[in-house]
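To: structure subgroup
Subject: Chain for Friday's discussion

All,

I'm putting the inputs and outputs inline so they're searchable in the archive.
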Amino acid sequence: MKIKTTLAVLALGLAALSIPLSHACTRVVYLGPEGMVITARSMDWQSDLGSNLWSFPRGMARDGAAGPNSIRWTSRYGSVIAAAFEACSADGMNEKGLVANLLYLTESIYPTPAANDARKPISVSAWLQYALDNYATVQEAVTALRAEPLYVVAVATPDGHAGSVHLALSDPTGDSAIFEYVGGKLVIHHGREYQVMTNSPIYDQQLALAAYWQQIGGTVMLPGTNRAADRFTRASFYINAIPKTSKAPEAVASVFSVIRNCSVPLGISTPGQPNISSTLWRTVSDHKNLRYYFESTRSPSIFWVDLTSLDFKEGASVKRLKLSDGAILAGNAADKFEKAEAFKFLTAEGK
């Protein structure tokens, strides 16, 4: 039985070798004492995403940017998000401490709706924002999305890549959920144990690979490449190996060290892998203290946004913190946001 298991895992590993590395990200959740829950992610991409931070209030009327039949909603919660191409919400936290992260997944196959399909389409560019706008907890999101009021429609990115992603949610209780479209069907992994997510292969196969490495033990050997399966293994080991503390500064520093360990050096060139992506930025979200940290790999300093310092009430202004011009910030940057017109989600062709 052990031989069969090992062979199966090796087969998965060989399959992972053939997966394109053009877009690679990592997400990890720290579960500490006294409600100290922290989610971190790296954003790895081949080209400049032009990322800025946005503050969105409650009461915003939105649609899914997937044609006239798109799902429509009014935001229940305010949020801070990191945008990609000023056309997609890629990462963020809402005022209830729900954190959402979009990561690339080449194997995503989104639904083909039937003619009488009751579900409403939503562009993949608005999927994360829908979750932050509508839900306070992971359990609430899982219950609602499992009923499938919507289906996701893929859209090519402005730099010409397929918009193939999966979505991770985490909340102040330490609960997590992973949402993937596999073979056109929504698959949800829900529970505190789902602390880590990377890219390919699909999540079930990532879990199988992680189980194999757990038998070896991280103090003996850990895989060190930039492949998604290797980053998954390292993140899974380190996030549970670092000290558990209720002191936010120490916990945040430890989590930053883990996500940096899973990052890809800026400008790296690997023979035979011309499309490998560098880490452009990292976020660390302190659910308990509602603090959203942002680190650009081109900046010498980290800054953060205290969500309690922002005005999320209905009717408040949409605001933007511009980073795409190379701004260097430190400390709490909540007062640096400026009024701006909300960007439009990248449009998909829904039915």
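Points worth raising on Friday:
Confidence is low (pLDDT under 50) at residues 1-22.
The longest helix spans residues 2-17.

D.
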